[in-house]
Amino acid sequence: MRGWARANAPLLERYIAAYIESVRMTMDPENRARVISLIATRLNQDRKVAERTYQALMEPRFGLAPDAKFDMEGFRAVLALRAEIEGQWGGKPPAPDKYIDLGYYERAMKLLERR
């Protein structure tokens, strides 16, 4: 929804900045107990399930990405697989920028740098 994003760019960038901050807080080892407690209470999970959920979130190739960084290589791979397996786009994957605009993320990171 590029039109919405353009019309609401400052709001979107602040939202992304807040999400990045939440990922940083979650990934900070000092907050482990607090995050597990939040998972247990907010998602109504047993403590052991909350601990396993936390561990899954910390898995480098599965869980949260530091600074919520977008995995461009992974996205290109998904597009390539869809082109190859599903035959989309005549078997030739489109450029990622057809679907994403990382400018909002980059501006959100600059907002965080200024704090």
Your description of this structure?
The longest helix has 19 residues, at 9-27. With 115 residues, the protein is an all-alpha fold. It is built from 6 helices and no strands. Helix 2 packs across helix 6 and helix 3 (32-42) packs across helix 4 (47-58). It is globular. The model has no long low-confidence stretch (mean pLDDT 96).
What keywords describe this structure?
115 residues; single chain; mainly alpha
Average pLDDT confidence is 96
> What global shape is seen?
globular
- The total of helices stands at 6
How much helical structure, as a percent, in the residues? 55-70%
Largest sheet: none
User: Can you write the helix and strand succession as a string?
Assistant: HHHHHH
Number of DSSP strand runs: 0
Give the N-to-C terminal Cα separation.
Answer: 29 Å
Percent of residues in beta strands: under 5%
pLDDT < 50 stretches: none
Quaternary organization: single chain
Structural class: mainly alpha
Instruction: Return Rg in Å.
Output: 18 Å
Furnish the topology, listing elements before pairings:
Blueprint: H1 2-7, H2 9-27, H3 32-42, H4 47-58, H5 72-86, H6 103-114
Describe this structure in a few short sentences.
The chain has 115 residues and is mainly α.
